[in-house]
Amino acid sequence: MKWNKRIIIILVIGILASMTACKSSESSSTVQKQDETGEAKAEKADTTSDSKAESKQESENQEADTAESENESSQETTSTSEDDATEESDQKGSQTEEGSKTNLEGMQSQYVDKLDETKKTFEEENAALTGNESTYELKYIEDRRFDAWDAHLNEIYGVLKVNLPTDQFDQLKEEQRLWIKSRDTGAMEASETFKGTTSEHLEYSATLANLTEARCYDLVRTYMR
Hints:
Blueprint: H1 2-127, H2 135-163, H3 166-192, H4 200-223
Helix pairs in contact: 1-2, 1-4, 2-4, 3-4
């Protein structure tokens, strides 16, 4: 009887020991699997991170290469454009200097004819007056005459600006500025003779027209030769 109890106890202890060993083995296996899984994930994460870093670096290198290429291309284009513009400007300047005198010489007779035609038109209009016109009507005629001669003057001045050498035109520009002041002063002084009368403004307009007409002929004969 005692031996039976001992045998049972031994069997129970053996069974317990066996179960404990199995559980320990399973736990160890589970830990090992977890470690392997963790290592695999870590390795995968490292690989992904390295891949992303390499991809990012390659992208940055490509962008840098592209930017450098575009910059070089832009510099080459800009340089070429500047060279072309400079060459074109030099060519135009040379052509203007060479053709300036010839152009002005050909323009003188053309502009003299235009001025003569305008002058003749207003002389015929003046000859057709009856003498019964009011001061208002006469002033209207003189205002129109001034506008016509002023338009001629601006046109002639523009032609000279394009064709004259720079230093010569700068001199003309200052001369023209002083002439305009002198013209306006002369017209004002002439009108003061009739100050307070209906002819005051008429005389002012007539003097402006006369002085502007003379200036047109003067510029054409002085500079278009």
